[in-house]
What does this fold into?
Amino acid sequence: MEFPQLRLLYVLPAFNATKPRRRQKGQPTRLLVVLGSGGHTAEMLSVLQGLDPTLYTHRSYVVSSGDDFSALKAIEFESTMRSAYEQGKRESTKVPSTYDISVVPRARNIHQPLLTTPISSLWCLLACFSILRATGTQSPSDSNADQSSGCSRADDYQYAYPDLIVANGPATAVLIVVASLLLRIFSVPGAEGKMRTIYVESWARVSTLSLSGKILRACGMVNRMLVQWETLGKTGQGEFRGALVQ
It folds into this structure.
């Protein structure tokens, strides 16, 4: 067996279920959140309700091109979380709490022919590599959005690869996970021990996983597969921890 194959077995969570590294309180931690569109975005932001910005000191939101709705919802979510923090609902800390929004090409457009899907998916995958490596500064089409949101620029605080990736639904989620695995398979400096992944299956999936969920589970590519219906948990398709969408 050649080296890349050994690395693949070592990196895939299904074959190497390692525990996350312990972190000191206040240590800078980057959380990457993949937002789909419409219902997927609403579900993901609902799952993140109660997120402590002092634990995940930088949040990176990934949206597909043309999805201004998800980008604006991320800004709204951050604004609400910041307001709650400033009102004393979150313990004060000296660690800077920042976020950024990055845009990737759509893996597949609505009604796009399957013949051209591999090409658009490849462009999306290539964009995922750069987003994983560093924080972005892109914002929705509204040029004043970043000023009103309090979104800090990436040159204010530099973060390396995400410590944790949380995703649901869209094909972009699969490509983000694939990109993170490739970086670790080829031992890219700084990627080791990073980019643990949690996939949250949609609340709408009652008895079967979505296509993205099926791919990630079959290939053993995520550290945790969370489902929101007991039926899926009982059939061994994921971990059931109750409904996560509020």
The two ends are 47 Å apart (CA to CA). DSSP finds eight helices and seven strands in the chain. Residues 136-157 have pLDDT under 50 and may be disordered. Strands lie at 30-34, 58-64, 98-104, 164-167, 196-200, 224-227, 239-240.
